[in-house]
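Students often ask what a 'structure token' actually looks like in practice. Rather than answer in the abstract, let us consider Renal dipeptidase, a protein of 391 residues. Its sequence is given first.
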Amino acid sequence: MKHTFKLNQSTLSNEVLLILELIKQEPQSIQINKDLVGKVDWNLFITQALHHRVYPALLSRISQSNEIPEHVKTVLNSEFKRNTLKMLYLSAEMEKVNQLFSKESIPTLCLKGPVLAHKLYGDLSLRTCNDLDILIPMKDIERAEALLVKEGYQKDDYIQSVLNDWRWRHHHMMYVHPVKKTKVEVHWRLSPGPGKEPRFDELWNRRVKSALPHSSVDMLGNEDLFLFLASHGARHGWSRLRWLMDIKQLMKQELDWQLLSTLLKKNYIEHIAGQSIVLAKQLLHAECNPAALRLASTQRSQKLAQEAVYYLESMINLHTEPVPEDVSNYHKKHLFSLMSPHQKSLYLLSTLHPYAEDAKTLPLPQQLHFLYFPLRPLLIMWRKRSKHAMP
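Now compare that with the structural description of the same chain:
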């Protein structure tokens, strides 16, 4: 990384700065900036800790500190205990779903969840998780859905599609168990399309077994995991510090940087990996070898990293609708800037393919859906005209 480049963090709140100051240090050697502590709104600190999903890491760092108010420790400890129970429950459910698919010969890769917590942190309780994310081949989607429905899961059918564009525009479907309150995301891609990424058979050949006790779950190899976590975090603007902590922890593990560099180049995301390394190094003091520093040394990686600081300035939540218009507009521009020239070309071509909103604008029988191709420009113009005509 060029020594002259330094992230501008002047827009970050005192609460976020203190969180960063704490999680960048190892639990056994914490030094707290007393001047910064005196400027912190502790209720907002708690809110930020919960938003960024880093309260397990914070608790291990502040539990013996006299500078942190007791009520802060109490709240974070309560959330920590709740999360630990949830992770244990999800671990059991993950094993059950994995065995369910295995009996039907559906190859399954667990992307995140309890196995990721154990792999990166060595302890289920040190990472949060709300659902289970699994990756299977596209051809097995219908069989997987039938198995989950038989187990009591219900499909959260939020995807609106026309002419089967869900296959490449989206990357997962959500299934919710109404009694267990468990969510399972079934992926057929690592990221939404259009874009290039490793095929399932490639990922399967490089898979590793989870080291979680009593687990038979397969997961991504380290290099594929880095590719996935970097792409996932970038797509969400690194709006939760938990994702950057994952990158830092993964960089502590054994990585084949030659293979990783090949994968990143092949899938046109070297700049995204570079962005994640810049952020992890400068915000969290992640250890970087020469290969990592080379990825982070480009102007594009550094520019993208600085753009991501915007998402840390306030508690931006891209998952909850409606997203404020200014945030939405910034995020759309940032997503486009993350695309490689190859992906931008694919994206621009994909806009010629009909969207579900075209079918809403002009409902047609399914056998006539092909007409949305020539009609799409007219439908876009009609929607814009209707929007401007609204008071």
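One point worth highlighting: The CA atoms of residues 14 and 80 lie 23 Å apart. Ask yourself how you might have guessed this from the sequence alone, and why that guess would often be unreliable.
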